[in-house]
């Protein structure tokens, strides 16, 4: 409720935050005070001083249809009156069943069961546990995993273990299980990576996990479907289970509903989160083939998948996902995805004229390029802070990954907003 204290308490929010809160991925000693956001609408965030920010990172890659979307709000408020939560062992409910049915209808045809969790990291944990226990249940245990260098699969221990090794994982090295890495098969490297893969894939490899076509946190590194098809078939020849971590690439980001839709070979397991609820609620999904599911069926209880979370398949979260799916599949949103993809493609031509830009890449609504002025390419590069602040000062929220600048706009972003963001990026490039 508003009171005469409200304006002051909002102004003080940053200071109050600093007194009690520890933020993610933030060096609390040197980070500037966080910006208090009081409301948001479409692609725009509004801070306590009334300043506007264009959310060109879709609030950490989750937002598809814009903030505070009225249709999602209405569906959530209806669901809240009916059923807010129920234990998901021994019980079920309409939103969970309907969401599973609708997801399976959209995913590659070999996906046949849906397991719910809370976020991208847990979706990956579940996929890994399914893969390891699949082999265990068959009585033919396999313990090896192959992943790609520079991969990011989340921050919990299993997800960290299959991610690339970096400063993020260094303190935990002794606790991370061994993983064999293949270099990312970027353009020009395909044959070399396939040669290496032929040696790495054996009948001892339990699972091969990848972010299909785009490695997100690793710097929006992109590679072609052809080589991924070849890697998937190589894995298959040895019975290795293929896990597609589509936590970032899912729900239209790559121009198709899923990155796997660009592929001929299909994964055995898929991980979804981020855009799943349109960015409104935390929800994760792991899907698998019938063959994997069947390996857990037994009169012997020890073959059960002993995994679950308190809020598994929360009805509110499932409802936001259903509402988001209605919006995503609408002709309007599909046209917007196309419109943003074309707009990015035109901007790519403009970017090519800047000497401070290198390695421009685009897939669907994802646009990324390297800033070359800094000379180095570390996540801790100072050009990162310079670019972040420059754009934020001009009302554009972009969070460079080291020297990699990228755009991942919500699909409701207007042409005018896109052009404004591009223009600020060009000012940055001219200033470097
Ligand atoms: C963000 C991300 C995750 C982790 O998801 P969280 O919800 O942040 O735990 C996993 N995999 C990929 C590809 C991601 O981009």
TrEMBL record:
Q: Which family does it belong to?
A: Belongs to the class-III pyridoxal-phosphate-dependent aminotransferase family. BioA subfamily.
The UniProt function text for this chain reads: Catalyzes the transfer of the alpha-amino group from S-adenosyl-L-methionine (SAM) to 7-keto-8-aminopelargonic acid (KAPA) to form 7,8-diaminopelargonic acid (DAPA). It is the only aminotransferase known to utilize SAM as an amino donor.
According to UniProt, the name of this protein is: Adenosylmethionine-8-amino-7-oxononanoate aminotransferase
**Keyword set includes S-adenosyl-L-methionine:** yes
Instruction: Write down the required cofactor(s).
Output: pyridoxal 5'-phosphate
Q: Write out the catalysed reaction.
A: (8S)-8-amino-7-oxononanoate + S-adenosyl-L-methionine = S-adenosyl-4-methylsulfanyl-2-oxobutanoate + (7R,8S)-7,8-diammoniononanoate
**Uppermost EC category:** transferase
* UniProt key word Chloroplast: no
Instruction: Identify residues that carry N6-(pyridoxal phosphate)lysine.
Output: 274
Tell me its EC number(s), please. 2.6.1.62
Name the positions where substrate binds.
60, 152, 274, 308, 399
Species name for this entry?
A: Spirosoma agri
Which cellular compartments is it found in?
Cytoplasm
Residues the record lists as binding pyridoxal 5'-phosphate: 120-121, 245, 309-310
């Amino acid at each position: 409720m508003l009171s005469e204290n409200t304006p002051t308490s909002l102004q003080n929010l940053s200071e109050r935050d600093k007194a009690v809160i520890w933020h993610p991925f933030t060096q609390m000693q040197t980070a500037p005070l966080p910006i208090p956001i009081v409301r948001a609408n479409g692609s725009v965030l509004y801070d306590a001083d009334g300043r506007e920010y264009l959310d060109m990172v879709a609030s950490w890659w989750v937002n598809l249809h814009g903030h505070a979307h009225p249709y999602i709000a209405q569906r959530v408020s209806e669901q809240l009156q009916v059923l807010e939560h129920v234990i998901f062992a021994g019980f079920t409910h309409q939103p969970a069943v309907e969401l599973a049915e609708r997801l399976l209808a959209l995913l590659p045809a070999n996906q046949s069961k849906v397991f719910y969790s809370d976020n991208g990291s847990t979706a990956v944990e579940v996929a890994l546990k399914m893969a390891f226990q699949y082999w265990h249940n068959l009585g033919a245990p396999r313990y090896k995993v192959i992943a790609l260098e520079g991969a990011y699969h989340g921050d919990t221990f299993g997800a960290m273990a299959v991610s690339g090794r970096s400063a993020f994982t260094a303190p935990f090295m002794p606790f991370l299980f061994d993983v064999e890495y293949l270099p990312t098969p970027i353009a020009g490297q395909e044959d070399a990576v396939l040669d290496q893969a032929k040696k790495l894939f054996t009948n001892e490899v339990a699972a091969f996990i990848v972010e299909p076509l785009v490695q997100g946190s690793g710097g929006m590194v992109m590679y072609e479907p052809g080589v991924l098809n070849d890697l998937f078939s190589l894995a298959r020849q040895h019975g290795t289970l293929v896990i597609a971590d589509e936590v970032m690439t899912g729900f239209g980001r790559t121009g198709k509903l899923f990155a796997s839709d660009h592929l001929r070979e299909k994964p055995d397991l898929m991980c979804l989160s981020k855009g799943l609820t349109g960015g409104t609620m935390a929800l994760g999904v792991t899907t698998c083939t019938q063959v994997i599911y069947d390996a857990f069926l037994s009169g012997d209880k020890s073959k059960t998948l002993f995994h679950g979370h308190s809020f598994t398949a929360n009805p509110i979260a499932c409802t936001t996902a259903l509402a988001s799916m209605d919006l995503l599949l609408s002709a309007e949103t599909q046209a917007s995805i196309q419109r943003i993809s074309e707009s990015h493609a035109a901007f790519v031509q403009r970017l090519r004229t800047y000497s401070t830009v290198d390695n421009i890449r685009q897939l669907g609504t994802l646009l990324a390029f390297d800033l070359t002025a800094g000379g180095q390419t570390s996540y801790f590069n100072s050009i990162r802070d310079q670019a972040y602040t420059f754009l934020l000062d001009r009302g554009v929220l972009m969070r460079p990954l080291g020297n990699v600048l990228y755009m991942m706009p919500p699909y409701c972003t207007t042409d005018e907003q896109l052009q404004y963001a591009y223009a600020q990026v060009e000012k940055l490039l001219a200033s470097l």
